[in-house]
Amino acid sequence: MSHSVPVPDRRPARGHARRAARAAVPLALGLTLVACGPSPVDMVEHPMTTTPSRMAGEELQRSAEPEESCAPAPFPSEFPGAGDRQVPTEGPGPDTVTVPRSPERILALGTGAVDTACALGLQDLLVGTSGLPFDADVYLPASLVGLPSIGLDTGTDAKKVEEAARKLRPDLIVVAGSLELDSTIVAALGDVAPTVVYDADVLDWADGTKSIADAYGRPRAGGDLLLGVIEQARRVASAASPSDTRVSLVSVTGGDGDGVAVQRADTLGSLMLEAVGAERPPAQRTRDGERVPPLPESPALGDEMDGDVIFAVVGGEPGAEDAAREVFASDRWMALEAVGARRMFVMDRAVWEGAGPVAARAVLEDIRSSINGIAPDG
After folding, report:
1. What residues contact residue 6 under an 8 Å CB cut-off, 6+ apart?
2. pTM value > 0.90
3. Which residue has the higher pLDDT, 376 or 19?
4. Looking at residue 124, what DSSP letter applies?
5. Which of 217, 239, 255, 365 is least crowded, fewest Cβ atoms below 10 Å from its Cβ?
């Protein structure tokens, strides 16, 4: 099993998120947050909340709380002193951007940009955010979640974005790049402060972390964060033997059908299961963030949702707890062997579908703490 973080030096075509060849296993780093959930019956009988300390009527066993998620002190600037320096950017726009050697007021427009700042202990330098998930407070401190937010949805007026950004007086703007990112938005932000665009594709989260850390003036520290995730994944693989357990990863969404589906392969949680070498049910196997069809000699048996253990990803919007209660009370769900064996655990969507080192470390800790566990009996 490979434990390497992809750190290619090549730069893709500018103006859109890259999907490079991924021969190495993707990894991540950050906070530790354990999401051990209650039994499925208890989740139906008791009220579910999405606060950082409780879900579905049972205490979550957390090794770190949101207020402890960020590094307690800033990683030192690797380019101290006055003046500027050049860093690469994804575009649209130029290949490089001139940024402060040691920025002091950062506008972090993207979950990965906020997450990486937290991991580097730069939370007090952030003046605004964008794109944080609905329930980001399950793993990020109130000081970050409560910052002014600038909307960058498709169709957003560039002039309004510029006005909102200017009020925050940043000396550096870091923005998540995607196919939907409007060049007029980037140009408007560039009129406010030096603006660096990073690749926000979760499959390239390691490259994104490197780019963000470089823009923040701490490229070596960003690399150290990634090395820390590699080491954490090795510890998880050694301590929990994930390759011996078939992990079913499902997303509880409500709505059409049964309100539950096999989790997408291109999410942070799925990538971290790959990173530690966890076994998956035949219908759920993935490689490098892509679904792998079952081999002829290992056809899917029973329900594709079932496994030795089930990680159920919950949250992300108002009413998510009601959707989860309905799913966990359904006949299909109650018939799953892992549910009957009390081997189903609730995971926070903000973390398992997050981006960046803090969320990635949290997922790894969830895996370590839950993969061989039994859910508490209500």
Report:
1. 20, 22, 23, 24, 26, 204, 206, 207
2. no
3. 376
4. G
5. 255
Q: In whole angstroms, what is the distance from residue 213 CA to residue 88 CA?
A: 12
| Residue 87: strand pairing partners | 97
Q: What is the CA radius of gyration of the chain?
A: 21
Structure tokens, 164: 């909102």
d(CA 148, CA 68): 21
pLDDT 10s digits, 159-191:
999 999 999 999 999 999 987 888 999 999 999
- Partner residues linked to 252 by β-bridges: 260
- Tokens found for residue 226: 């990634």
Looking at residue 294, what is its pLDDT?
75
What the chain holds in terms of domains, given with CATH numbers, is 40-65+241-370 (3.40.50.1980), 84-226 (3.40.50.1980)
pLDDT of residue 269: 95
- Indicate the SS3 state at residue 249: strand
The single residue listed with the structure tokens 């390239």 is 204
Q: Which of 273, 229, 33 is nearest to 140 (CA)?
A: 33
